[in-house]
Design a protein that fits this description.
The chain is an alpha/beta fold and 370 residues long. The chain contains twelve helices and 16 strands. The chain binds flavin-adenine dinucleotide (FAD).
């Protein structure tokens, strides 16, 4: 264990990015990962029908940040995949997020680009909401009106978080993306695509450096006392590091169920959301994201659940409070220069892939300068 300058707990995107950046500066890095595979949440594999599946739910790469795009392109070629989502609403497949076409299809209108914001203002004016103490519902209704809220957001949010959206914070709603044109792409970021050989292959290439050693099936806790590394980059659950001293942070999980069908294509878009029907929130057809050819197709159904692996941080006051307590401890440890807490689990914060990479780049960059 004395062979290593740095130990990294967790081999997801945050751990792999950190490992690569440190290895390129000449540090000898040991990455320990509790699972039997690399990649963390973005792990993918090819099934017996030659279809690449995302084990923990669908992942689409998109970013505005050139530095991050350049970084991932060092480790994988990317396709030019532009993501599309349809929402199954009132028996029809409707483009989502809301754009001009969505409104025209749903409301039988013939709106031009210049009409869209006026139409939405009228929808909002017709609706009741509380602007002074907004909940999630109020925040959405104040932007798009009650009809669109009910069709696209209300039940989906209930399924996703297993609670009444009135009790959720308005921050969760954020700015609802609405396009006044017919651009039906899900993301509008300049850079988007899928790694052509998959995410696991991309992460594998990141780790392919003479200064990086990866140990799979190994908990950080089981080796931490044998280490004399200069730095520990911890990317596991925040509360777990501190042995749940202040209590347990809660997550929403998702049961991901794969089904293979004896047909070439299953649905009219890579992802179809089911906001109002069924127990699952969405179905993803992977072939439509990767462009793989097969006479069968494998799709995944996502069922949100309180039990299971930690997927989404739960945005409630109790967790917010616990996070603050743990982050105070983190600050103390990080001040010693011997620890960094990086990533979605270690910071108890939702990061898209690009922001996870950007954050690791910044944090490792600062540490290297200290
Ligand atoms: C369902 C879902 C869908 C998503 N879709 C998208 C998308 O389409 N586009 C996008 O940009 N982002 C998406 N994301 C976000 C993306 O998954 C994250 O940005 C990314 O996984 C963050 O990587 P990470 O390394 O911080 O965390 P993780 O991938 O969770 O990696 C942490 C690793 O640490 C390991 N670990 C934890 N504790 C220990 C320990 N004590 N010892 C050893 N190992 C440990 C874990 O096993 C895990 O492998 C999605 C997230 C979810 C939940």
């Amino acid at each position: 264990m004395d062979l290593y300058d740095i130990v990294i707990a967790g081999c997801g995107l945050s751990g792999a990015t950190s490992a690569r950046l440190l290895a390129e500066q000449g540090y000898k890095v040991l990455v320990v990962e509790q699972k039997k595979h690399i990649g963390g949440q973005i792990y993918d594999y090819r099934n017996e029908h030659g279809i690449t599946l995302h084990r923990y739910g669908p992942h689409i790469f998109h970013t505005k940040i050139k530095q991050v795009w350049d970084f991932v392109n060092r480790f994988s070629e990317f396709s030019n995949f532009q993501h599309h989502v349809l929402s199954f609403v009132e028996g029809n497949f409707i483009p989502f997020p809301i754009n001009r076409q969505t409104l025209n299809l749903l409301f039988g209108e013939n709106l031009k680009t210049k009409d869209v914001s006026v139409f939405l203002q009228q929808e909002v004016q017709k609706s009741e909401y509380n602007p002074s103490l907004p909940s999630f519902r109020d925040a959405v209704v104040s932007q798009v009106g009650a009809r669109l809220y009910t069709l696209f957001f209300e039940k989906y949010t209930e399924k996703q978080w297993n609670c009444n959206p009135d009790t959720l914070s308005s921050e969760l709603a954020g700015r609802i993306p609405v396009r006044d044109n017919n651009d039906c792409r899900y993301f509008s970021d300049k850079y988007q695509g899928m790694p052509v050989n998959g995410y696991t292959a991309m992460v594998n290439n990141m780790l392919a450096h003479e200064n990086i050693h990866v140990l799979l099936g190994c908990n950080y806790e089981s080796i931490k006392n044998q280490l004399s590394a200069k730095l520990c980059v911890y990317t596991g659950e925040l509360d777990r590091f501190f042995d749940y001293r202040f209590g347990k942070l809660t997550y929403r999980s998702v049961k991901v169920e794969f089904k293979t069908y004896e047909q070439e294509l299953f649905q009219p878009a890579p992802v179809v959301n089911y906001p109002n029907d069924y127990d699952y929130t969405r179905i993803t057809e992977f072939k439509q994201m990767t462009g793989e050819k097969s006479n069968k197709t494998t799709v995944c159904y996502e069922y949100p659940s309180d039990d299971g692996l930690p997927f989404y941080t739960m945005p409630n006051q109790e967790n917010q409070h616990l996070r603050e307590l743990y982050m105070k401890e983190v600050k103390q440890l990080e001040m010693t220069g011997k620890y960094l807490f990086i990533g979605r689990l270690a910071e108890y914060k939702y990061y898209n892939m690009d922001l996870a990479i950007e954050s690791a780049m910044k944090r490792i960059g600062l540490w290297l300068k200290h």
